[in-house]
Amino acid sequence: MVFVGSDAQLTVPTAVKIVIAGGFGTGKTTMVASVSEIPPLRTEELLTEAGVHVDDLAGIEGKDTTTVALDFGRITINTKVVLYLFGTPGQNRFWFMWDELATGAIGAVVLVDTRRLDSSFPSIDFFEHRGIPFVVAVNCFDGSQAYTVDEVRHALDIDEAIPVVLCDARDRESSKSVLVALIQHSMNRLAAV
Amino acid sequence: MTGRDDWWYDEAAGPLVRPYAMVRGRTRPNAPDLHLVTQVRASSFASDQTSLTVEHREIMALCARPLSVAEVAAYLDVPLVVVKVLLSDLIERGDVLVQTSTPKIPDRDLLQAVLDGVRGI
To answer: Superkingdom, according to UniProt (chain A) (predicted)?
Structure first.
C-alpha cells in the first residue's frame, strides 16, 4: 500500500465496499443497519441538477442545487480490511452517484419487494449493463413470502447464474447470509474469468 | 431588505454559506483520488496546528484512527465536497496520510478475508 506522507509505521486499512440497491422502501437502510457495527451514518453531497461540480460561489446560489444523501454502515473485517455498505440514493436522477458507489465494489445486493417488483428493474439493469456482480435478495416483509425464488427469478428475467435469495432485512443473520451469498458469487465470477 | 438573511439558504440543501465559507469558496480539492471509502489518518508528526481552522482540527481529532472520507464527512456533518477540500489542505501539509490507490475490484485473497470476516460478525 502506498501512502502520501512520511511516517510509514502508521498503517491505513484497505477499504472495500458493497452496494445495497433497490427501489424506494425495499429495506436498504434497514439491511445496512442490521449488519453494521455502527448506527448507519449519513453523508450528503451538494450537486447542481446536472451533477456537475460547481467552480465557485457564483454557481451555488441558484435554485438548481440539490442534495444527495447516502446512508452507509461499516464492518471492520480485521486490522487490515474494513468493509463499507452503501445504500444507493434514489434512482434515475443520481446515476452518476451510483457510478462512484459501484466503482471497485465487491458487488451489489438488489433488494426486492415482491409487491413492487418493477421498482427493482432499474437497479438490475444498472448492474447488469456494467458487469458488476450482484445478487437479488427478496425482502420478506412480515415474514411472509407469496412467491418462490424461481417465480421471482422468472418474473425478473434474470440469468440462472445470478443468485436469488430470500431474506429478512431486519434480521442480522439473514442479512449476513445475503452478504455471504454476494461475496461467494463475486469469488465465483473471479474464478470464471 | 427582507429575504436578505435567507439568501444563502436552500430549501433542499440547507445553509450554504457556512460549508462554503469553511473552504473559502473552493469546491475542487487539490488532492486527487479522494473517494468515498478512501482511508485517511492523522499523521503522528502533525505540524503546528495553531494556523488551522476549527474544522481542520476536528478532522485531525477524528482521524486519530483511520476513517473513510465518507465517515469524516458524516461525523463532521458537512457535505462530501467540503470535507474533501478540507482533507486536501491537511494532506498538502502532511498532517493527514491518505491511501492513494483508486478503488479497484478486490482480488481473491481479499474477498476470502471479507467472506471470513462477515461470517464472523
So the answer is: Bacteria
| Domain boundary assignment for chain A | 16-42+73-192
Residue B44, in any domain of the structure: yes
Quote the mean pLDDT of chain B: 82
Residue B108 belongs to a domain = yes
Looking at residue A23, its pLDDT comes to 87
- Test A6 with B66 for CB contact under 8 angstroms: no
CA B102, B106, B109, B110 torsion: positive or negative? positive
Q: Which 3 state secondary structure label does DSSP give A61?
A: coil
Tell me, what CATH number does B100's domain have? 1.10.10
Residue B6 lies in a domain: no
Digit-coded pLDDT (tens) for B21-47: 667 667 666 666 789 999 999 998 767
Distances (CA, A) of B110 to A14, A188, B47, B114, B118: 9, 14, 35, 6, 12
Cβ–Cβ under 8 Å, residues A70 and A89:
yes
A58 touches chain B (CB under 8 A): no
Helix locations, B1-121, DSSP H? 17-22, 54-62, 69-76, 80-93, 108-120
Name the residue facing B121 among A70, A82, A176 (closest C-beta). Answer: A176
Size of interface A-B (CB pairs under 8 A): 185
State the residue range of the domain holding B81.
26-120
Q: Which residues contact B80 (CB under 8 A, 6 or more apart)?
A: A43, A44, A45, B36, B69, B70, B73
- The interface pTM score, or ipTM, of the predicted complex is 0.85
Structural domains counted in chain B = 1
DSSP element (H, E) containing A98 = helix A95-102
Beta strand A81-87 with A14-22 is: parallel
For residue A150, which phi and psi values (nearest 5 degrees)? -65, -40
Is residue B17 over pLDDT 60? no
